[in-house]
């Protein structure tokens, strides 16, 4: 039983190959970024629908008021 050294999913690859194909090609990273972007858009839209306004604070932080 082997596990990918990046995502820790079980893999069956030859000896010496310790990463899954998706991690090797960078597909998982792209998929995670796309999912995070979608979640951020959905969260922002939900807060806008509640009537909140997105503002940037004096120290660079972003929050809704």
Q: What do these coordinates show?
A:
With 65 residues, the protein is an alpha+beta fold. It has one domain (2-64). 43% of the residues lie in helices and 15% in strands. It is built from 2 helices and 4 strands, in the order ββααββ. The chain is elongated, with a radius of gyration of 19 Å. It starts with a strand and ends with a strand.
SSE run: EEHHEE
Distance from N terminus to C terminus (CA atoms, Å) equals 51 Å
Radius of gyration: 19 Å
- Global mean pLDDT: 89
Number of domains as seen in the coordinates: 1
Strand order in the sheet with the most strands: 1-2
Unreliable sequence segments: none
Got a strand count? Answer: 4
DSSP summary: helix tally: 2
Name the helicity range: 40-55%
Largest sheet: 2 strands, antiparallel
**Proportion of residues in extended strands:** 15-25%
Shape: elongated
Structure in a nutshell:
The protein is built from 2 helices and 4 strands.
Structure keywords:
alpha+beta, 4 strands, 2 helices
Please outline the helices and strands.
Layout: E1 2-3, E2 10-11, H1 21-25, H2 27-49, E3 54-56, E4 62-64
Antiparallel strand pairs: 1-2, 3-4
